[in-house]
C-alpha cells in the first residue's frame, strides 16, 4: 500500500488499521497451573544468576520449527510493518510450530539472559516485536480459528483478522475487533481492541474468556476467571509482551448482524473545527449501534471526514447524518452510504495493508473539547499528518474501569496523531507528532492507548494504564520476577 493509500484507508477506518502487536500466536493444550506464590506486593529484583551463553545450535535442534540467524531464510520475515523504523538486528528468529517450541525458546532465553520478544503480525508501532540482539519468537503459523456450537471461538493468537472474520462469518457469528486484515488478534485483544462494532458490542478484550500463555517460568497456563484470574484481568488491556507469550484464546462471540449500514461524509475545506465540535456532541448522544469516527486531515486549510457504520438499516442513519450536518453548519462535499451484511462490511473496512512508513502517537479524549479549533490548528499546513478521533462510549462505558486492565471506560474517544514518513525523514516528522500529542493532552486528556504505543511519550505508564498501573506492576512482578519479558515500554523496563 502506498503512503497515500494508507492514509485514505486510515481515514475511512478510523485509524484502526495498524494496531500494536507485541505478543503472538499458537495453540493450547496443557493443564492449568496455579498462581505462583511470589508476594504480589513486592517487586523482585532481576536474577543475579550467572548467564550461560545462548547455545543457538542447541536451540535449533530442540525446535520442531525452524531457527533463522542473520542472512538465513526466514530471518527478514520478522521485520516490522512500519518501514520508517530504524532497522534492527535480532540474534535469531524462531518460527515455532507449537506450545512446546514456545516453552523451549523461553527456557533458553531465560537461562542465557537473552532478550526475547514475540512476533505475529508485526504491527507494533515502535517495532518492539523485532528488537536488537533478541530472540524473536515468530508465531504466525499457529493461527487456527474454530467456532464451537456454543458460539465460543477458539483462536490461535497468531491468527490475522481476515482469517478470524471469515471463520466467524461462516458460522453466523461476529467479534468486535479492528479493521486491518493483517493485524494479529493477540496484539489487538491484549491492548483492548477497538473497531467499528466497539460501541455496540464492547472491546475485543471484553470477550476474552481465557488466554493460554507461557509465562517466564516456562509454564503453559490458562488464564481465566476461574484460574490465574489476576493474569486474566491483566491480559485484558495491558498490551502485548508484558507477562509472557500468549498462544491461544477463547472468545465469546455475538450473532453476526444481518444489516450494517456503512457511510462516509466529506465536508468542505475550512470547516474542520465546526465538524469536530458537532461530532463530539452528536456521537456522545448516539445509540450504541452507531460508530462513527471524525478524521481531521492536515492541510491548508485542514478538512474533516466522518465515516463509520450503523448496526441496522439505512433509514435511521440518514436522519442521524442529517442532524450532524445541521449541527455543524458545514457544507457536505461528498456523501455515500450502503447497507451490507457483516462479512461484506468487514471486507469494506479492511482495504489493503502493505507495509508502510509512519510516525504515530495517541491521546484519550477524556472530556468534551471546549475549543476544537485548537486541535485542528495542530495539523494546519501539515498535509502528511492527520488526527483520527475514534469514539468510545456505548458498551465500552458499561464496564467498570477496574474490571479489566483497560482504564479508559468513561472517555469520549481516542485520538491518534498519524503522519506518513520514511526512515530518512522520520525524526523531523516525529517532532510534529510529539508536539501535537502533548498539546492534545493539555486540551482533552492525558490518557493514551497502549496499542498505539509511542517511544517518545514521556508519561506513558500513567497514560496507558491510569489507576490500574500499580496492580499491573504487581502482577508482572508475580509472573515475571526476573524481568525476562522486560522491554523499553513494558511494565518491567530494561
Automatic annotation (TrEMBL):
Keywords: FAD, Flavoprotein, Oxidoreductase
Region of interest called Disordered, as start-end residue ranges on this chain: 27-52
UniProt protein name: FAD-binding oxidoreductase
Domain FAD-binding PCMH-type residues, every copy: 86-256
UniProt source species: Allokutzneria multivorans
Family: Belongs to the oxygen-dependent FAD-linked oxidoreductase family.
Highest taxon of the lineage: Bacteria
Record's keyword annotation contains Oxidoreductase: yes
Keyword Flavoprotein: yes
Phylogenetic classification of the source organism: Bacteria, Bacillati, Actinomycetota, Actinomycetes, Pseudonocardiales
InterPro entries: BBE, FAD-bd_PCMH, FAD-bd_PCMH-like_sf, FAD-bd_PCMH_sub1, FAD-bd_PCMH_sub2, FAD-linked_Oxidoreductase, Oxid_FAD_bind_N, Oxy_OxRdtase_FAD_BS
